[in-house]
Amino acid sequence: MVFLTPLFLLGLFAALIPIAIHLIRKEKPPKLMFSTIRFLKKTSKKLILFQQIQQWLLLLLRAAVIALLVVAFARPLFNLSVARLLDADPQSSVILLDMSMSMRYGDSFANAKEAVLDLLDNMTAGDEVALIGFSDSADLVRELNTDLGSMRTLVNGLDQAGYGATSYLPNLRLADQLLETSRYENRAVYLISDFQEIGMDNSDESWKLAPGVRFTGIDVGEQESSNLALTDVRSPEQLLEEAAEQVILARIRSTGTVFLQQGEVTLTVDGEIVDRKPVDLTDRSEEVVTFTTSFVTAGTHVGEVRISGDEFSVDNAFYFTVDVLPKIRVLLVNGEASDNWFDDEGHWFGLAVSSAAQSPFVLQTIAPADVSAAALNQSDVVVLLNVGGLSNAQAQALTDYVTAGGSVLFAPADKVDPAEFNQQFAAITPANLQRPDVLSRDDYLVIADFDSRHPILRPLSSDWVARFQGHWSIVPAAEAEILMQFDNSEAALVERTVGAGKSMLFASSMDLEWNNLPLQGLFLPFVHETLRHLVQPEYKQRAYQVGDSFSLDPTGTATSMEARDAAGVPIVFNNDGFVIKAATPGMITATADGLDTLYAVNILPSESNFTRAAVATLYDQIINPDTNPVQSSAVRTAQLIEELEQPQRLWWWLLSLVMLLVVAEVLVANRTYR
Amino acid sequence: MSESLNFLDPTVLAGLDNLELRARIVVEGFLSGLHKSPHRGFSVEFNDYRHYYPGDDMRHVDWKLYARSDKLYIKQYEDETNVRCVIVLDTSASMAYSSGGTSKLEYGITLASALAYFINRQRDAVGLITFDEKIHEYIPPKCRQPHLMQILRTLARVEAGTTTNTVKPLTDLAASLRKKSMVILITDMLDDEKKVIGTLQNLRAMGNDVLAFQIMDNAELNFPFNEASEFIDMESNESYITTPATIRKAYLKNLHEFLDYCKKQCQTSGVDYCLMNTADPLDEALSSYMSKRAKSF
Lengths: 674, 297
Known about the structure:
The complex is a heterodimer.
Chain A (H helix, E strand, L loop, with lengths): L1 E2 L12 H8 L7 E4 L3 H4 L3 H29 L2 E2 L2 H8 L3 E8 L9 H15 L5 E7 L3 E8 L2 H9 L12 H12 L5 E8 L20 E6 L8 E7 L3 E3 L5 E9 L7 E8 L2 E9 L5 E8 L5 E10 L8 E9 L2 E7 L12 H8 L6 E6 L6 H5 L3 E5 L6 H12 L3 E5 L6 H7 L6 E8 L8 E4 L19 E7 L4 E6 L4 E8 L2 E6 L16 H13 L7 E3 L3 E3 L10 E3 L14 E3 L4 E7 L2 E8 L12 H8 L10 H13 L4 H20 L5
Helix pairs in contact in A: 1-3, 3-15, 5-6, 8-12
Chain B lengths: L1 H5 L3 H8 L3 H8 L17 E6 L11 H7 L3 E5 L6 E7 L13 H18 L3 E7 L3 E8 L2 H13 L9 H10 L5 E6 L5 H13 L3 E8 L1 H5 L6 E5 L5 E4 L1 H25 L3 E6 L4 H15 L1
Parallel strand pairs in B: 3-4, 3-6, 6-7, 7-10
Antiparallel strand pairs in B: 1-2, 4-5, 8-9
């Protein structure tokens, strides 16, 4: 038992007061003349003895009341460890354990675990400690507590470091925050790491640990290291069928303290080794290795660049995917074909679609009269340039085509009858035509506003300088989305989703009759992006780095998904968006709606850099020169006492006992000489 | 003693006039004037005059006086007194005890005065003995009015004495009594009660009529003390420290044993016994006593 305010125990001397009064100032009872005492003297001796016992009991009760009051004010506690806490200088500490990829090198992580256990062994019962396992963020957090045994168990259970990068300051901030709620004024942060230079973040040099917080850096890194690292790999993400041979670049650098000069790089595609190339760093610090290969078949190809020749294999592989896409079949319905290219409505569009050496499109041009369901079904997208006079059957075929998943782009001009257009394409057109609006020769409109977040227009954010002298005044459908507007606030480009397909309407021509857009540099990418958008879903990033959080759902519409990480372990989702945080390098396979999607996860190349920094550098950066604690030790001790005493409340029970003794004293005293 | 004399007020004594004492006197023939004395030809020594009452022997009428005053007076002779009553008053220190009101001694003096007055009015001879460890005053029984006044003055001078020795005055009294007399003992009996009652029994055996008034204070009877105190015996000055609340039951038990002993011994030996509480009114105590005395006949 310990006493939180032991000075009160001096009051125990007060318990001697009743005894002293009893022994020294034994008060004589009042004298009373009585006729005779013969009847008093004949009373039983037992009564006399009982009377004496009562007097002694009364004396003991009074002394006990005083003693218990004193003990209650001294605030006793049943906890021997508390005594040590109060007598010793208990410590609140946070242990930061580096679990970045570099700690996998050699025995670094094992040494780090030993260092943590040594720290725990040197702590005394009552000390509180927190543990943060970190890389670029806190991967493992155990908040402040005094259960050192469970902390040891936790540390012993750590198998290996992770694959993340190193960043000290965010985790030091977290440690500092944990210590804000510490019980004790004696606070310390222990950082156990290999002290990579890349972990030093100099972006916030003004931040310091709280005043009074001690910092100790424990370097467990290997003094010597040798490593060949892939610092950069360049590979294509998407290709078209029949694309030319692709070049894959791999940049290799020796990043350890011991410079490695020889190595070998291997390119593997779809599990088959494509090529091996030696690495020679004899006369250079890094070497760029070039691989050439072809991706013939459509679909997703998995590639891996792997380096050998060092002892640290964790950073020796780089994973990537290459999507080979089929060419887009474009059916151009030219409503104003002409032998004179200047008057040909489809001339400029055709140039834009098929002029590139590796055009992703296969263009087929037909007259309006040739529009048929068969022709439509052999194309991925249909473009109607100034097409009027289609029969209702052709219009219905087009409607069916779009509803079934096809795409159509309308670019009406002077050949189009608005009433007929609106009637025939009511089910699929994103806007109804009102009237053609052709301005005078010196007047024109420009694109005043556009949705820069739309996939078509996102890469076309530069100024639109095209001049429009003629356009259709249109009324967008309720479900249509306006993507571009003229400066007279009328819609220029609208989009509508129809069934499984899409339709778009450009409210002007695609030749030089109503505007000079085909002469603008934006025309070709505008056409390409528009056609690609109408046919292909938006490309989703497939390459990530360890520590990135991303969704495995490529379209954002999946209702269920099965996924496995690089080791083949099923991934359990705890959110609706199928978002994961990449933890291990390799290929993640996600299956949604029967369609497999592959994601490549690679380590951060910077983590392979074993260049080390001095612990003192970090110490100087973060230690607070103001060593005065924010709170005085007395205040912290008072808080500690409050926390420890609250669950026991022994003084409350003692005072209750005092109350009972006082009642007993009153009862006995009323029957005894006072 | 002025307060004590208030008990001699006729209104107090009027209550006794109606009680059974008068009937007893008739039966015993002690009180002359109420009926003819059973004792004839006793002493011719003139003692006093008194008014004639119907029934008086005409031979004792003083005709000469009648001729001078035209009133009938009866010559009274000393031997004509029918009852010789001696009041024996305990004046020991214990009788001085008082718990706040009238002390036992004052109460006893008042009682003795009332009895003397009453007896004297009945034309009986009354005497007085005061004692503690020895006899302080002895007034032989006489029935003259000045004699009563002597008794009353003597009572007015009485002060508490020292220890008690009841046996000696009673023994001396028994030796001096030549005729059957009435002995009225007023005491708290805080002596050797066996010897006291033995002496009373002797007096009774000698043909005397013995009345014992045991005077007790209310505090003695109920022992109402609570606070621990040092009790000092008023006669022996012996002290005893105790907590009354603790021993109250035992005290009362001892006291009642003592009182019961006195009462039973008196009753079995023909001694009239009356326990009187100083807190009770004197007339009620006398009436209660006379009522008890009447039942005994």
